[in-house]
Amino acid sequence: MEAMKNFDNSFLTSRVRLIAGTDEAGRGPLAGPVVAASVIFSHDTFIEGVNDSKKLTEAEREKLLPQIIEQSLACSVSVISHAQIDRINILQASLLAMFTAVSRLKIIPDLILADGNKKFEFSSGGCRAVIPIVKGDGKSFSIAAASIIAKVARDRIMKRLDPKFPEYLWAKNKGYPTREHINAVKLYGPSPLHRKTFLKNILPEYSSAKEYELRE
């Protein structure tokens, strides 16, 4: 959508020439990591079909991914484990994932647009600011592209893990709390890759974060 590209370009100034968009995938699942991506495009790069990853089908995301990578100036991915999520909470893990993704870019951006209403600190090189954009994956071209990269990367991780824990149907639900997934957790208990702090409403023994900390 050209309006999304225009949104990004509205931040361009004589001092802001390179803009990085960043977004995460996997805040809501019961299991697996949270994954973030960051991407930088030239001001005149536009890819038809780029949109909020949640508004695209899996096939559409897979088709767009190589175009995004090929036409970007730089892109990167970061993965924060389920264990780290349990230790620092999902908000902090998501911010850490986005920070790490931006840190891994081979080009230092002048400005970072981050999806959400929270921002992380990033002062490397000549980067001037991190601007949080609420529902940014539906407004910003670069954030939307990052959301596609992150979503595809995370879905592929969960598909690879599925054969090791087939009872949870991760190839189908990607770790999200579907009825089938919740029922499997109740029947079989959690796997080593479940986020224990996300199970308090499913399994009584995880109802207290303090109890979990003691067990760990």
Structure, briefly:
The protein has 216 residues and is of the alpha/beta class. The chain has helices at 2-9, 58-71, 82-88, 90-103, 141-161, 170-173, 179-188, 209-215; strands at residues 19-25, 34-40, 74-80, 111-115, 129-133. The chain has a five-stranded mixed sheet.
Question: CATH homologous superfamily of the largest domain, by name?
Answer: Ribonuclease H-like superfamily/Ribonuclease H
Proper CATH architecture of the largest domain:
2-Layer Sandwich
Strand content: 5-15%
Shape: globular
Low-confidence stretches: 209-216
* Helix content, binned percent: 25-40%
SS class = alpha/beta
Give the spatial strand order of the biggest sheet: 3-2-1-4-5
Alpha-carbon distance between the two ends: 47 Å
Count the E strands.
Answer: 5
* CATH class label of the largest domain: Alpha Beta
Task: Describe the protein's topology.
Layout (H helix, E strand, L loop, with lengths): L1 H8 L9 E7 L8 E7 L17 H14 L2 E7 L1 H7 L1 H14 L7 E5 L13 E5 L7 H21 L8 H4 L5 H10 L20 H7 L1
Parallel strand pairs: 1-4, 4-5
Antiparallel strand pairs: 1-2, 2-3
Describe what you observe in this structure:
The chain is 39% helix and 14% strand. It is globular and about 60 Å long. The C terminus is likely disordered. The protein folds into two domains: 160 residues, Ribonuclease H-like superfamily/Ribonuclease H (Nucleotidyltransferase, domain 5, 2-Layer Sandwich); 52 residues, no CATH class. Helix 2 packs across helix 5 and helix 3 crosses helix 4. It has a five-stranded mixed beta sheet. Strand 1 and strand 2 form a beta hairpin. It starts with a helix and ends with a helix. It is of the alpha/beta class. The protein is built from eight helices and five strands, in the order αββαβααββαααα.
